[in-house]
Amino acid sequence: MTIAFTPSASSPAEPEAVAAISEPEFWEPSAPEPQVATRDVPDATDDQGRYDADGTDGADGTDGADGRDHDPVVVRDAHDFGVYARTGGWAFALKVARSVRPGGQAAEGTARTKVSAKAFAQLAGCSPERVMRYYKAWDMAADDGLVPQFEVLVPGEDIELPEADVWLSYYTSRNSASSVRGQAISAAAEAEGIRPTKALEVAENPTALRAAILADPGTAEAARGALLDRMKEDPALQTEMARAIARTDDLKKAVASEAKAADRIGYVRQIVENGQIRTPAGQTVEAPAELRAEAERHLSLLDELDDSEEAGEWAGEAYDTVKGLVAKAVEEDPALRVQERRTKFYNSLQKATKVFEELTLDEVMEEDIYEADMLQRLEALQEAIGTCISALRKATTTSS
Q: Is the CB of residue 91 less than 8 Å from the CB of residue 3?
């Protein structure tokens, strides 16, 4: 496809016009030429002059598409629009590529008529940085063999241009894209299958990102997922998030509630996956078939919950049901019941022994901390221990 794009003969723009120009259209059409023919505009109430629903005003729907009945200035604008619609930024990049000779390049041969990026920017009424972004985009495309190199292009020459969709792969309208941070953002955007310019725009406007998160649940959910993915590889962010949650009472309660629900779901899942139960005394034994089937039923209900549904109530119900069945299984098995009580007694005895061993009698002697109540409590404890010992000895004599 050969694009015939007539170079503009625009005059240098005033400096004030620079701020009004938006990306990527730094090129301005030339001043309107004298109108050579005029047409009477049909009155809006005239049935013959009404526009059809498709935007045409001719009986055959062509609206004089050959351009013979239109102002040449309008025809030229339509032609320029068509070129840009097909090629996007390539149409303007071609103007830069065939007309700009950056500083440091020798002005030899066809390059003698080319100008610097600064001079071209002054003629276009924009910044040299913007011109160079188009220049660099063309340079990268030329390295990929998509377009010709600068050296073979002559000012005013038209060539076949790539499709518009390809342009965004080479052009970036932001200076941040060249920084280390910008390159990382661009790489992440490409990995996600989106245009780097979109990601860079968001990164350069955190306030807009905050507003979108606050106002839109969908954006907030996307941000949550991104933060979780980022925290997997960012220990510093993990610490900051944990600190922020710990300092916020509502969040701290929510985390504790979710942790409790997760523990209960884990208890049920362990029974299903391992086929074992953990008794209240801490024993691990094989789970009865009835108990395991009930645990599987509750776990399937939990796994079917959507991410948006609260799992706490369901987890509590599953935990209480399974725990009740565990207690029932222990009571219905005589041998298991005896072992459970023996284990429970040993656990209590070990705890009591550890607590008593931690009493620091040396401090009682060295410091004046003695109270009469202390002695009374120890005497009561001694009496309880004696009773326990007598009961155990009696049980041992009876069993033998």
A: yes
Tell me how many degrees the CA angle 163-164-170 measures, rounded to the nearest 5: 100
Residue 198, CB half-sphere, CA atoms under 13 Å: how many?
9
How far is Cα 145 from Cα 80, in angstroms, rounded to an integer?
26
Contact between 98 and 154 under an 8 Å Cβ cutoff? The reply is yes
Q: Is residue 56 part of a domain?
A: no
Residue 3 lies in a domain: no
How many residues does this entry show for the chain?
400
Q: Are residues 222 and 320 in the same domain?
A: no
What radius of gyration, in Å, describes the C-alpha atoms of the chain?
41
Residue 400 to residue 397: CA distance in whole angstroms = 5
CA–CA separation, 95 and 130 (whole Å): 13
> pLDDT tens for residues 193-216?
776 767 777 777 788 889 999 999
- Compute, in degrees rounded to 10, the torsion defined by CA atoms 33, 39, 44, 50: -110
Total structural domains in the chain? 4
Residue 397 is part of which domain span?
Answer: 359-400
Q: How far is CA 10 from CA 47, 74, 131, in A?
A: 41, 17, 16
Q: Which amino acid is at 358?
A: E
Contact 314, 321 (CB under 8 A): no
Give tens-digit pLDDT for 105-132: 555 666 678 888 888 989 989 888 888 8
CA distances from 107 to 56, 115, 129, 154, 348 (A): 50, 9, 21, 13, 95
Strands (E), 158-251: none
| The pTM of the whole model exceeds 0.85 | no
